[in-house]
């Protein structure tokens, strides 16, 4: 099975509407942790996103000279077309942003929401940073960076799978 795990950082929470939020970064890794894509983009609509910047540390000047996400859409479509399983933490959020730019998983792809699985297992909802802390994960990079979050999500997913197989 070809599984990918991904995360995005965005300008906000709403990818649709008259003033849509946009993807600033996307990172996609394989099940083995190999980096398949790790890119940053300049938004086409938003000129500032102070609330998101306070969380993800990405400011307009950081992405001002970068290409827009349109340059990566062919590669994103290729990666998602080859994935039998798509893993993410609160994956529906990130998939909503991808859908807004015309990128979707295959119809037959298994969508695995690590947050929902962890919530079920722990009997309460955890933010990714708390779930990663709970399993003893040592961060590679800064939390709320798309690559660091994708790697942490994969670690939490593997931890869950070990427990679920053992049960």
Word description of this protein:
One of its GO terms (molecular function) is exonuclease activity. InterPro entries: Ribonucl_H, RNaseH-like_sf, RNaseH_sf. It holds the Pfam family RNase_T. The chain is an alpha/beta fold and 167 residues long. The chain has a single domain (3-166), classed as Nucleotidyltransferase, domain 5. Helices cover 40% and strands 18% of the residues. It has 7 helices and 5 strands; from the N terminus they run βββαααβαβααα. Strands 3-2-1-4-5 form a 5-stranded mixed β-sheet, sandwiched between helices. The longest helix is centred in the last third of the chain and has 21 residues, at 146-166. It is globular. The mean pLDDT is 95.
Radius of gyration: 16 Å
| Mass-distribution shape | globular
The mean pLDDT is 95
Q: What proportion of the residues is helical, as a percent range?
A: 40-55%
CATH architecture label: 2-Layer Sandwich
Instruction: Report the end-to-end length measured between terminal Cα atoms.
Output: 23 Å
CATH C-level: Alpha Beta
pLDDT < 50 runs, ≥5 residues? none
CATH superfamily: Ribonuclease H-like superfamily/Ribonuclease H
* Computed structural class: alpha/beta
H/E topology pattern: EEEHHHEHEHHH
Number of helices: 7
Q: Strand share of the residues?
A: 15-25%
CATH topology: Nucleotidyltransferase, domain 5
Largest sheet: 5 strands, mixed
β-strand number: 5
Number of self-contained structural domains: 1
In which order are the strands of the major sheet placed?
3-2-1-4-5
Organism: Bariatricus massiliensis
Domain Exonuclease: 2-166
InterPro entries: Ribonucl_H, RNaseH-like_sf, RNaseH_sf
GO molecular function: exonuclease activity
């Amino acid at each position: 099975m070809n599984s990918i795990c991904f995360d995005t950082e965005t300008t906000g929470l709403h990818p649709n509407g008259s003033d849509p939020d946009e993807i600033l970064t996307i990172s996609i890794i394989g099940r083995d942790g190999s980096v398949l894509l790790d890119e940053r983009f300049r938004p086409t609509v938003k000129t500032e996103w102070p609330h998101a910047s306070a969380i993800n540390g990405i400011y307009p000047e950081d992405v001002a000279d970068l290409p827009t996400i349109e340059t990566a859409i062919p590669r994103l479509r290729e990666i998602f077309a080859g994935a039998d399983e798509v893993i993410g933490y609160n994956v529906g959020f990130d998939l909503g942003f991808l859908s807004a730019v015309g990128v979707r998983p295959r119809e037959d792809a298994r969508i695995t929401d690590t947050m929902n699985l962890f919530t079920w297992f722990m009997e309460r909802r955890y933010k990714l940073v708390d779930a990663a802390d709970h399993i003893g994960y040592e961060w590679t990079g800064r939390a709320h960076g798309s690559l660091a979050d994708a790697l942490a999500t994969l670690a939490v997913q593997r931890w869950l799978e070990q427990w679920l197989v053992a049960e």
